[in-house]
């Protein structure tokens, strides 16, 4: 791949954005390669956890504005661009039942931060520079930020961050936007032990629980438990417990 590095090691698929000359700004080639990498990791039986990160002190500086035809701004449709790039990728990430982790190794702004928000877990280096910088160029937050950010930090704080306020990895931790500071090695080891399909069902039900009624969520839990209860991992775990 031209713009990312994809590697599977010890049941972890590492997707690393590699456009270092532009701080991992996301162009259409990277969109296609990110989509293919997440799709590949999601169906690989040798992958238990998917980690997204950057390189050279940058997670991602967001959309590559140089990939937008500035000379055609009056006719360029940002909505069409979103539909064939970010929306497609975000919907795929949302469907993945395996744990996804974003390691924010440095700068994450605009749509770069949006991609991190779409992961199940986020870790950041202490001095990471974060911002939803859409307002600075007269645009509204996209790439799923309007969906994920209010659910993570609450509406009032999401609106504040949406104005383009810059904050550090440490501040993100205190906001609850990231789960921890530093590399997520310990978390990933824990996630590798998550039972299948129970983790995917838990993720699905908890997201549904953000908007569904109690009755609907109880029904979803019932359906999920029927599936998990017949899984090989559940049967083996119960057998091991009884033998003790």
From TrEMBL:
Domain of life, source organism: Bacteria
Keyword Translocase: no
Keyword Isomerase (UniProt): yes
Matching CDD domains: crotonase-like (cd06558)
Molecular function, one GO term: isomerase activity
Keywords assigned by UniProt, alphabetized: Isomerase
InterPro entries reported for this sequence: ClpP/crotonase-like_dom_sf, Enoyl-CoA_hyd/isom_CS, Enoyl-CoA_hydra/iso, Enoyl-CoA_hydra_C
Family: Belongs to the enoyl-CoA hydratase/isomerase family.
Protein name: 2-(1,2-epoxy-1,2-dihydrophenyl)acetyl-CoA isomerase
Lineage: Bacteria, Bacillati, Bacillota, Bacilli, Bacillales
């Amino acid at each position: 791949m031209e713009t990312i590095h994809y590697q599977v090691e010890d049941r972890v698929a590492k997707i690393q954005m590699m456009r270092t000359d532009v701080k991992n700004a996301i162009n259409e080639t990277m969109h296609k390669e990110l989509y293919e990498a997440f799709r590949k990791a999601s169906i690989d039986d040798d992958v238990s956890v998917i980690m997204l990160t950057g390189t050279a002190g940058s997670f991602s500086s967001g959309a590559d504005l140089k990939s937008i035809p500035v000379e055609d701004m009056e006719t360029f449709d940002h909505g069409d661009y979103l539909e064939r790039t970010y929306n497609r990728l975000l919907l795929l990430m949302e469907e993945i039942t395996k744990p996804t982790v974003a390691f924010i190794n440095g700068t994450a702004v605009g749509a770069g931060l949006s991609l991190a928000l779409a992961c199940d877990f986020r870790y950041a280096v202490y001095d990471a520079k974060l911002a939803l910088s859409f307002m600075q160029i007269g645009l509204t937050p996209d790439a799923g930020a309007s969906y994920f950010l209010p659910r993570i930090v609450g509406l009032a704080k999401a609106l504040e961050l949406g104005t383009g306020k810059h904050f550090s990895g440490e501040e993100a931790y205190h906001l609850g936007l990231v789960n921890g500071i530093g590399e997520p090695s310990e978390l990933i080891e824990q996630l590798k032990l998550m039972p299948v399909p129970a983790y995917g069902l838990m993720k699905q039900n908890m997201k549904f629980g953000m908007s569904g009624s109690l009755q609907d969520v109880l029904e979803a839990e019932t359906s999920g438990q029927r599936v998990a209860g017949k899984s090989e991992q559940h049967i083996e775990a119960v057998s091991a417990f009884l033998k003790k």
